[in-house]
Design goal:
- The chain has 483 residues and is of the alpha+beta class.
- Helices cover 51% and strands 18% of the residues.
- It has a five-stranded antiparallel β-sheet.
- The longest helix is centred in the first third of the chain and has 55 residues.
Length: 483
């Protein structure tokens, strides 16, 4: 080694050491800076996460409809802009919701109070809304899958064709359709209206008006007019023929004169009875008629009926018997209607009984309230016991054939004359009974067997406060318990 270079070696070594120290310091500074940046980024992320949680919580609170100020966002322009946009949108939504809320309440109230069934279908014909009347008209009391049933109803060809026509034309279309509903053929006036005509897959509104009873009532009125005309025409024609016979034969022919006068007298009496029955029927059907609720002594009613019919029963060799149970001597009701009911029942029995007896019974009995046509909304039977007073008229007459039992309460309907006596009546007696019993809040039951006789029962609920003390029924009354 050159002796002259020895002094320079420490100097070189010192320079290398200084460079390493500077690099180390620089690296340390870089590490510190990176760590600081990482910590800052982490803090920013944590702050943003906390802000996002605050925003989400605020949105949930706003979703529940509770007012709350938005979270404060500073130094985050994007988040601040997002919060402002959300605040604007939620404010607009809240305003719209407040405006629509009363309209929604109005719609619900309207649907609830409508007497017509309303069904709203979506684009796939799925029911999304229906009212109470729809449940009463189309759904069975034990129905559990209402949407399925209503969807099947809307899928029936007449309804589906009507819905397609409404969608195709873009305006409401109405048709009268006969459809089986819950096992009964009904006449429905169905209106289909597209909710969004401009959208091919928009919703559809179905409005159903049950016109079955309306058409039946119209038919009943038409039948009533025809039957009344027939009942009036027959005696009038006979009277006219008798008068013409008298005019042709002259008053000197005493035999012909007496026979014709007897014919006129008989048909005039028939006309009087027909007019009286028509008046009675009109009064019992009048919804404005006042029905009294007074205590009635049934022994007095019995005496009046005996006075009317005992001689007729004696002439036909029939026993007319009355049995009033001890606890049934007084009932609450309208005495005029009770007399009208009993008069028609006894008169009807006397006409169609040629041998045997007519037995009238009054008694009380505890029965389920369902027998008085009280049912809850689901149609289940209400079994709360209720005390009723029963008028029962039994005869040993010709009886009523099974095919006629459901029709004998129709106006002017009479069973085959060959099964009864000569006087078949006007055909209004049992119709009067039905309406008079219903006017007092009761129902009618009928049992009959051809050749053996008929039992008709009229049942009325009686307030316990208005009743005498309860006693066991009489032995005779208990022999004939209602079925």
């Amino acid at each position: 080694m050159d002796v002259q270079m020895l002094p320079l070696m420490p100097l070189a070594m010192s320079h290398v050491s200084g460079t390493d120290t500077a690099l180390t310091a620089l690296l340390a500074v870089l590490v510190v800076v990176l760590a600081a940046i990482a910590i800052i980024e982490m803090l920013v992320l944590l702050q943003r996460a906390r802000l996002m949680k605050d925003i989400i919580r605020w949105l949930r609170v706003r979703q529940l409809g509770e007012p709350e100020s938005p979270p404060v966002v500073s130094a985050h322009r994007q988040l601040e802009r997002l919060v402002r946009e959300i605040q604007t949108a939620t404010t607009a939504w809240e305003t719209q919701r407040r405006e629509l809320l009363p309209h929604s309440s109005y719609l619900k109230t309207l649907l609830t109070c409508l007497n017509d069934a309303v069904i709203i279908l979506d684009g796939s014909e799925k029911p999304v809304l229906f009212n109470r009347r729809t449940e009463e008209l189309l759904l069975a009391p034990v129905e559990t899958e209402a949407q399925k049933t209503l969807r099947e109803f809307a899928a029936q060809k007449p309804v589906a064709d009507l819905a397609q026509a409404a969608r195709r034309h873009g305006h409401p279309i109405s048709r009268q359709i006969r459809l089986p509903v819950l096992g009964r053929l009904r006449v429905l006036q169905i209106t289909a209206a597209p909710i969004a005509p401009e959208v091919s897959s928009g919703g559809l509104l179905l409005l159903l008006q049950d016109q079955t009873e309306l058409l039946q009532n119209a038919q009943i009125k038409a039948d009533f007019a025809a039957n009344a005309s027939h009942e009036l025409r027959t005696p009038l024609a006979s009277i006219r023929a008798a008068v013409e016979t008298i005019s042709e034969a002259g008053y000197e022919d005493q035999v012909t004169l007496k026979r014709c006068l007897d014919i006129v007298g008989g048909h005039v009496l028939r006309l009087q009875l027909l007019v009286q029955d028509l008046l009675d029927l009109s009064r019992t059907e009048d919804p404005r008629a006042v029905v009294r609720q007074d205590p009635i002594k049934l022994e007095d009613v019995r005496d009046l009926i005996l006075g009317m019919f005992k001689n007729i029963a004696a002439d036909k060799h029939l026993a007319l018997r009355f049995d009033i149970a001890t606890e049934a001597r007084i009932m609450i009701g309208d005495e005029r209607l009770v007399l009208l009911i009993l008069k028609n029942l006894v008169d009807n029995s006397l006409k169609f009984t040629t041998a045997g007896f007519i037995q009238v019974r009054w008694y009380r009995q505890v029965r389920p309230a369902r027998l008085l046509e009280t049912q809850d909304r689901n149609g289940s039977e209400i079994e709360n016991p209720q005390e009723v007073i029963i008028l029962e008229v039994e005869d040993t007459g010709c009886g009523i054939p099974p095919e006629d039992i459901n029709r004998v309460f129709e106006r002017f309907y009479t069973v085959n004359r060959s099964r009864g006596g000569a006087d078949r009546g006007t055909g209004l007696g049992l119709a009067i009974v039905k309406h008079a019993v219903a006017g007092m809040g009761g129902v009618v039951e009928l049992q009959s067997q051809v050749g053996k006789g008929t039992i008709i029962r009229c049942l009325w609920p009686q307030s316990r406060q208005a009743m005498p003390p309860q006693r066991p029924p009489t032995e005779e009354a208990s022999i004939y318990p209602p079925t």
